[in-house]
Amino acid sequence: MGLNLALRKYFSIGLNLAGLAPRFWEDSSSYFITVDYHYLSGHEITFPTLEVSRDILDKQLNFMHRNMHVINPKYFDKNFFLSNQSKKSSILVTIDDGDSSIQENFDLFRKYQIPIIFFIPFGLCLEINSRDGLMSRILRSFFEIEENKLSNFQVKEDFFKKVECASMEELKLIYSELLPLRDNIDPISNRALLSIDVLKEMAKDPLITLGSHSMSHPVLSGIPEKWLDWELTTSVKYLQMVQGDNKYFAYPYGFKDSINNNIKNKLKELGVEYAFSTRSMAATSNSDSLELGRIGMLNFFNRRYLYGLAGRAFEVFDKILLR
Length: 323
Ligand SMILES: [Zn+2]
Hints:
The chain has 15 helices and 11 strands. It has helices at 3-17, 54-67, 80-83, 100-104, 106-111, 122-125, 131-142, 146-150, 153-165, 168-178, 196-202, 225-241, 261-269, 303-310, 313-320; strands at 31-37, 39-41, 51-53, 69-70, 90-96, 116-120, 208-212, 248-250, 274-276, 283-284, 295-296. The longest helix is centred in the C-terminal third of the chain and has 17 residues, at 225-241. The chain starts with a helix and ends with a helix. Zinc ion binds at residues 96-97, 213, 217, 252.
């Protein structure tokens, strides 16, 4: 286990044990925390920061069900802080990346009646023989070649223009040329993502709200204007197609520098009201609703850890690390 991972686990427990988690000095109705899952697993864990096993998930959801006020995103709005009467800490549960393991393990969310926002990178869920599907995989592959990450905006813009104007035959050729050059493949590219048809079915579930997570899952602050516009507007188009909720968006990667005012303004124009980062911040009535924080859930169950989490222990942790 990496030092950082171990620290994150025991920091929350320690803070809670020492009575230092802010929970003890703050009214729990004045904030809520949002947590974030990616992949679920029936057996071994391959990605310790992204994956939670089924038995641990069962315990975590049971804990939330018994001890916390779980927010339903279908009925969430700006009046939350005025209308929240719950004495328990409030939690909003989100899942990123549209992975098929979520559908396979969704019975556990049903068992404890935990509603979720499921953030979908739509382009990677489309069939590869559709134009937007192939284009998204090409744009994803571009950033899986290490040196392309460092290229300037002009190079990226020229690349996007070339892809946008290409015929299907040309796109297939571009993709086959890019694939062998990838030297830093993101886990998302090796996962089985849910199809648009399955997502459409899932969106009918009263516990599932779909939100946008872009098309090709790039660092949005690292792409030129036209590319950014395409990522946002096209993903919202597909979100509407599957009956998702336009007001929710999650920034791919979601670290501090992946978000800026230009992106936020574009999201606002598209009707997005709540956009989520991956920085460990609780939401209060003063929070920027287009830059809400989230805490990544780990494959770990300990009641004190979850009480610490509910009490905003991670916020302190992030501050100490100056994240
Ligand atoms: Zn993601």
